[in-house]
Amino acid sequence: MLRRHADKLLINGDYADLILNDDTGGAPGTRCLTLSDYGIICDTHLISGNKTCSADATAGEITVDVVIPESCECPYEWCLTIVCLPNLQLYNTYNTFPSSKVYCYEDPAGGTPTDTDTAAAIAAAINADPFACVEASVVGAQITLTSLDGATTGFQAYAASGTVTTVTEFIPPVLDTDEMARIFPIETGTFGSIPTLPVRGGDYCKYNIVIRGQEDVQDVDGANHWNAYEKEVDIYILDGGADPGYVALIAALDAIIA
Known about the structure:
This protein is of the alpha+beta class. The chain has two domains: 7-55 and 175-257, no CATH class; 61-168, Immunoglobulin-like, CATH 2.60.40. The protein has four helices and 15 strands. It has helices at 15-18, 115-128, 177-183, 244-257; strands at 7-11, 32-35, 39-42, 46-53, 61-66, 77-84, 99-106, 134-139, 142-147, 155-159, 162-168, 204-212, 217-218, 226-227, 230-238. The strands form five sheets. A four-stranded mixed sheet has the order 1-15-12-4, with helices on one face. A four-stranded antiparallel sheet has the order 8-9-5-11, with helices on one face. A three-stranded antiparallel sheet has the order 7-6-10, with helices on one face. A hairpin with a 7-residue loop joins β13 and β14 (226-227). The longest helix is centred in the middle third of the chain and has 14 residues, at 115-128. It is elongated.
């Protein structure tokens, strides 16, 4: 079965002008909403609907307790492996696959390294690496790893000897400025025009709605056959705060997909 891309509708304001009718009557319980830039959406024709709103990223945090084996041979090298996970929201070549970075330390005098010296040296090596995807802090023999620059990249850590504990799972941002700019870019041929673009730094909610039944057409090859046309639309709405039109629009869409 062929499937077309979802229509995309960006609403940055003028909310009152978008709502032409809500709960137009018809069958009991029918809720309909007419969007001037799209058409009519009714809950009786709803196949599926969901809502996603902007959310800040959550930085990942992992602690590593360094343990030096008692039976190690000198010189002994302790290593920490950090795997930087790709940011799949980007389209850069170096974001296609995970990349592994290994940080090692051994006692300069050739003896058995201490756990505190090892932790301090590994943390310093990480923070000095311009290609690191984490930043490190150390207390005693424990290294704390945090996503670099707040939360841009997920990562994993592995140590041959020691304890690795995930304190906070990394969660990527949802509908942030960069993602919205990729969804609604400045396209070829828009020079000299005023394209509708996302508001930088704005909070958006996305409604994914699939409806079927409003454009049914009779199949001329069948005696009593009808073809139902299924439409999918992604509606991105800028947070309008207490604006009455915005509140009414959100309430209407929430009621339709409920």
